[in-house]
Amino acid sequence: MARQVVLLRGINIGARNRVPMAKLREVLEKADFEDVRTYLQSGNVVLSSKTKPEQTARKCERLIRSEFGLEIDVVVRTPAELAKAVERNPLGEVAKDPKRYQVSFLSAKLPPAGRKKLEAAVVEPEQFVAIGREVYAWHPDTIARSRLWALLAGQQLGLTATSRNWTTVMKLLEMADE
């Protein structure tokens, strides 16, 4: 069994896409995942699985569809992949508030068209760096009214993206290493 970090996209935001974490843990445990733990109410799960990360993502999507009636995209990272994303930390010198420093975990490498969309959305002093299957975004003034954030939180990039602030990323890495 290998540890994996499972990131659900767009759940428990306001009144839509409600997924209770206790019920999610129960559903995942019944589906033969082990050591299932959640963090916060925003779809952060650390578990152990016999399947590869891509298979885990698809299995979780099917389970959420059948148990909760929701179409939720899932992105999975191994602890090593998450540790590498933290190690890179390309904006660590400028991103001083971890709540405004976001990492978007992508289902695939950002295509050139997606990168161009993000570049066009950046408003100074915002910054972003795309490396592999992660996009690091620094929103020093606001996240809520950021066009960059809207693109990263939306579905206009041509792939699945789900974002976590730096505090959550660090906590998930800690949980994955336990």
Characteristic terms for this protein:
single chain, 178 residues, alpha+beta, Alpha-Beta Plaits, 2 domains, four-stranded antiparallel β-sheet, 6 helices, 8 strands
CATH topology of the largest domain: Alpha-Beta Plaits
Highest-level CATH class of the largest domain: Alpha Beta
Characterize the biggest β-sheet.
4 strands, antiparallel
Total beta strand runs: 8
**How do the strands line up in the largest sheet?**
2-3-1-4
CATH architecture of the largest domain: 2-Layer Sandwich
Q: Specify the overall morphology.
A: globular
How does the helix and strand content classify structurally?
Answer: alpha+beta
Instruction: Domain count, please report it.
Output: 2
Mean of pLDDT: 95
Could you describe the 3D structure shown?
The protein contains six helices and eight strands. The chain is an alpha+beta fold. The protein has two domains: 76 residues, SP0830-like domains (Alpha-Beta Plaits, 2-Layer Sandwich); 96 residues, Alpha-Beta Plaits, CATH 3.30.70. It starts with a strand and ends with a helix.
Short description:
The chain has 178 residues and is an alpha+beta fold. The protein is built from 6 helices and 8 strands. It has helices spanning 21-30, 53-68, 79-88, 112-121, 147-153, 166-177; strands spanning 2-8, 34-39, 44-49, 74-77, 101-106, 127-131, 134-138, 161-165.
